[in-house]
Amino acid sequence: MTGRLAGIGWMLLAALAAGACRDRGDAPAAKGEAMQLDSVPRQVEVRLYVATDWAWNEEDTLAVTVANGTEQPLSGDLHLFVGAPVEVLRDSARPADAPPAPALTSSGEGTRLTFALGTLAAGASAEFRQAVRMPPAPRQRRPAAVDDTTSRFAVRAWVAAADGREVAVAADTIRIRAGSEVVAGGCGGVDDVSVTRYGIGPLRLEMQASDVRTLCPEARDTTWKQEGSTERGMNVRLAGRPVTLVLQNDRVQRIVVDTAGVRTGVGVGVGSTVAELRGRYGRMCAGAGEGRVAVWFPAAPGISFGLDSTVSIAAPLDPEALPEAAKVDRMWVRQGTDDCPAS
């Protein structure tokens, strides 16, 4: 992101929880004692830095600064919400002495990250950064004159008290620049084939089969047997690497990868180990899918990983019992729940 800081516009919106503005007669914190956020005066600021020039299928970084203009130490949490379908990326090379990774909560509206603010000294500030990835470009282009809200994604940052009340907040919008769509002309020459929540490279879930054929003229229809029924799909090559699109009602229901070279934004894919998956994504869920053990992560919504045949399917599946050396031999980009099943 450093190369784009000159082009970054930032906006500052400071807001206080209503309870912090009233004269409640609270005794001030003793000198040097960490002040709780429900008694912090107006000088708490949140500054949100969002690049002004984004493209589809692009990675970049959001930055948030929390400034403590009070006379007392400040403690609490910083929350960052990133609207769907923007993908939040986990740090694949986090130093051992780095602050704890933020907690992630995903929903249909987007992803919320919670950073521990710790104790921020009076007059000090702290910066938080988060890598994100834009979704693949929509297949249907719209005229430039049309106000297309599908190319805008909300970003919001706020500092919260222990009871969840907002103390300071900043908001902005990621805007995709016109003309940044993936150019059609065959998928074999596409350079970027990273796996995201909603697709791989220019291909995405819910895309019509006719649009796939237009985008990838080399796509070929295929059928196969799965659990006693006939599945229908398409074989496509992205940057020379084969992927299979599973169709339902002539739309892409899920995307299957069973060869190395196609990876997620944090660098895992076919050939990665369970240890590597845990290191990138944290808490792991497990179940049985397509005759093999499948794992997925709340921190990586929309993506499942099938493990090799050396892992036995035993009920109930305990994610913690899976061997660290087990390897991924298949990935699915799909819809559906991303939380762990109830034990």
Structural features, described:
The protein has helices spanning 18-21, 209-215, 274-281; strands at 8-12, 44-51, 59-68, 74-83, 87-88, 103-106, 110-120, 125-133, 152-160, 166-175, 195-196, 199-200, 203-204, 220-226, 229-238, 241-248, 251-257, 285-289, 292-296, 303-307, 328-333. It is mostly beta strands and 343 residues long. The chain folds into three domains: 2-175, Immunoglobulin-like; 195-257, no CATH class; 274-333, no CATH class. Strands 14-15-16-17-21-20-19-18 form an eight-stranded antiparallel beta sheet, with no helix packed on it. A five-stranded antiparallel beta sheet has the order 1-2-3-8-5, with no helix packed on it. A five-stranded antiparallel beta sheet has the order 6-7-4-9-10, with no helix packed on it. Strand 14 (220-226) and strand 15 form a beta hairpin.
Fold blueprint:
Blueprint: E1 8-12, H1 18-21, E2 44-51, E3 59-68, E4 74-83, E5 87-88, E6 103-106, E7 110-120, E8 125-133, E9 152-160, E10 166-175, E11 195-196, E12 199-200, E13 203-204, H2 209-215, E14 220-226, E15 229-238, E16 241-248, E17 251-257, H3 274-281, E18 285-289, E19 292-296, E20 303-307, E21 328-333
Care to give the gist of this entry?
The protein has 343 residues and is mainly beta. It is built from three helices and 21 strands. 6% of the residues lie in helices and 40% in strands.
